[in-house]
């Protein structure tokens, strides 16, 4: 008998409604801006920014979080997305949550990678980093399911320099056919790559085999010289129940992923 899947806490994190931000910041009310528009080369998309209590007198990081297929996390901003943002802000990290500019069928990152990648790169390099005096070197990436696939198929093979400190692939992150632009020696040595997938997330229900994809992705990037590859495949979790809030906390704290 299979173990009962553990569940991500079903909580609401509408914390921006509870009062003013504790530290003055150049953001909207309580450091939150939802549904902002950004257009690059005729491609229009949207994004959220969460920055409650960010102290710009201290080192600031940027968490770039890519949603899964369908973009439900983006659309329901006071659920998991806001809980993740709260965790990022506690680590003095701005949380940027872009929505793929995909306009055909279900919203995904991976169905038109070149178009979506160009828009995402422009958003970060032309809007986010200049606005807040940051750079790609300050970035920590996290992708879930299709968002994890975007990182391993779309970003790392061609623009690994966009990821400054680490990338965490949750519920996916397969191996590309090739790397179009080779990462530098420094990136291979220093960039932290982590895959986190529940052992039950193996396609047993006839859908996406995230476990197989993640194992292949981790092995591929290890084989081309990335020295800091971490894998975590905890028992009792499936595609929707992996505790992403805890994972982000551990990644931002510099801890090894432990979900026992």
UniProtKB/TrEMBL annotation:
Gene3D superfamilies: alpha/beta hydrolase (3.40.50.1820). SUPFAM superfamilies: alpha/beta-Hydrolases. InterPro entries: AB_hydrolase_fold (IPR029058). This is Esterase. It comes from the Bacteria.
């Amino acid at each position: 008998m299979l173990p009962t899947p553990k569940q991500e806490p079903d909580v609401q994190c509408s914390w921006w409604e509870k009062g003013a931000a504790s530290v003055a910041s150049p953001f909207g009310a309580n450091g939150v801006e939802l549904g902002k528009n950004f257009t690059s080369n005729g491609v229009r998309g949207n994004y959220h920014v969460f920055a409650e209590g960010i102290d710009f007198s201290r080192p600031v990081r940027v968490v770039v979080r890519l949603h899964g297929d369908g973009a439900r996390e983006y659309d329901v901003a006071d659920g998991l997305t806001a809980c993740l943002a709260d965790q990022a802000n506690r680590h003095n990290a701005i949380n940027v949550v872009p929505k793929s500019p995909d306009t055909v069928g279900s919203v995904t990152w991976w169905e038109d990678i070149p178009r979506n990648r160009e828009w995402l790169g422009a958003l970060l390099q032309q809007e986010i980093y200049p606005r807040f005096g940051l750079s790609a070197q300050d970035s920590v990436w996290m992708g879930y399911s299709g968002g994890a696939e975007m990182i391993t198929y779309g970003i790392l093979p061609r623009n690994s320099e966009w990821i400054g400190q680490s990338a965490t692939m949750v519920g996916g992150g397969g191996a590309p056919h090739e790397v179009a632009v080779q990462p530098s020696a420094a990136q291979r040595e220093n960039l932290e790559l982590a895959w986190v997938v529940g052992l039950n997330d193996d396609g047993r229900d006839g859908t996406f085999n995230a476990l197989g994809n993640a194992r292949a992705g981790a092995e591929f990037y290890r084989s081309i010289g990335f020295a800091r590859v971490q894998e975590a495949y905890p028992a009792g979790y499936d595609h929707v129940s992996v505790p992403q809030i805890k994972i982000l906390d551990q990644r931002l704290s510099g801890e090894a992923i432990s979900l026992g």
